[in-house]
Design goal:
The structure is a homodimer. Chain A has about 210 residues and is α/β, with parallel strands linked by helices. The first copy, chain A, contains 11 helices and 6 strands. Chain A has helices at about 10-20, 35-45, 60-70, 85-95, 105-115, 130-135, 135-140, 155-165, 170-175, 180-190, 200-205, and strands spanning about 5, 25-30, 50, 75-80, 100, 120-125. In chain A, strands 2-1-3-4-5-6 form a 6-stranded parallel β-sheet, with helices on both faces. Chain A binds a DNA duplex (30 and 30 nucleotides) through helix 8 and helix 10.
DNA sequence: CACACCATCGGGTACGACCCTGAGCCGACC
DNA sequence: GGTCGGCTCAGGGTCGTACCCGATGGTGTG
């Protein structure tokens, strides 16, 4: 029988969920604050934690991160009134294995909990798309680079190799040009991007996925 | 009525799918190669492309990337015999909105296509977990670091700042110690991790999400 | 207590990174 | 033809990095 732990700052809601799940699932415990939740989950070690996203003291994310550090096998299912993309992505990034809204029916919730317990991921229909968007965003995001237009083709070439950690001498060999020329390009790149050294440049480039 | 385009290098399989979907969905066209698929999809502009992952000439990913560049509104549902994590992640990263295995039943496939057409994401139960793992991997990956145990607390501190691109002088100010001490720590870090310069160190650290 | 380990510094060296000035060559544009 | 921008180099300088040597105190352990 799947053991589930309830976390929600509204006692009334916990009572309702407990009534819906009663008999079908084993409710190992419940909590109304982040601190109580972390302690309770660690003590009872349930299969699944049913977790409200919006709570004082950091919300569901804080609970996931704290518990996951000590009990990586415990799974989390987010349960929220919100269907905002940032809420979904945030809690999934923290480690939750699913996200359902509070409009869900009792039997569907039972099914979702069971599936999460078995290792599946469960989402309310509309919400899975948010995660996919965030996941495949990279390819689309790199288009918007106004500052990169300042660079010439050759400078972009040098930039790429610089960001990869190549030494000037290596870049020179790679591009069949003199070290001095590489220095010139590198200097121009740094000046145009308003950076002071190649370490900042490395971070600049990795932030924009140019590697 | 949802218009769907079939892409699979096995004609027999396309016939089977077409038979299953016939009447319920509008099959706009079909193709057996990447080139045919790209041309056909661009011509017919369907709502959803049902796409085999494993095909000659780059597979489903090639089709998605080519079509997505010109028709970003067309949605893709991957259909494959494989349930390997790398296949799922690869095609999702390319931009597919769902992934189902070929063991799926006809009615379920129809339902999946309709949901993808409406903007939802659809996965065979086991497979959604792969995407979430890849998405939130960062937090788990840093656990397995045998080499990092070689470093002392102070060295780890310096490592963090080095990886962030701080100069020795800045690190010295930050930690209220001498530049010489920073040099010593940095040298020890490089030696213990068997790296030769701070660029390699930066990449080493970013690979392990220590920033 | 001796010993190992760590953190803290210094001197000195070699090399790379970075900047500045200046210059020749070439193609595009007016 | 003149001008401008980009690519290609050079000399010469400052500063950061990496590594060598050494030294001092504090810490914990056998």
């Amino acid at each position: 029988m799947t053991r589930v732990f309830l976390v929600d700052d509204h006692g009334m809601f916990r009572t309702g969920v407990r009534a819906e799940l009663g008999g079908v699932l084993d409710v190992a415990g419940e909590a109304g604050t982040v601190a109580e939740a972390v302690a309770g989950v660690r003590r009872t070690e349930p299969d699944v934690v049913l977790l409200d996203v919006h709570m004082p003291d950091g919300g569901g994310r804080a609970v996931i991160e704290a518990v996951h550090a000590t009990h990586p096998d415990i799974r989390f299912l987010a349960l929220s009134v919100s269907d905002a993309a940032e809420d979904v992505i945030g809690v999934i990034r923290a480690g939750a294995r699913g996200y359902v809204t509070k409009t869900i029916s009792g039997p569907d919730l039972v099914d979702a909990i069971r599936r999460v317990a078995e290792g599946d991921a469960v989402f309310s229909p509309r919400l899975a798309g948010f995660v996919l968007d965030a996941f495949s965003m990279r390819a689309d995001a790199r288009v918007t680079d106004p500052e990169l237009d300042l660079l010439t083709a050759r400078e972009r070439e040098v930039l790429r190799l610089l960001a990869r950690g190549y030494a000037y001498k290596e870049i020179a060999t790679e591009l069949f040009i003199s070290v001095k020329t590489v220095e010139t390009h590198a200097s121009n790149v740094l000046r145009k991007l308003q950076l002071s050294n190649r370490h900042e440049l490395t971070r600049w480039a990795t932030d924009r996925r140019i590697v």
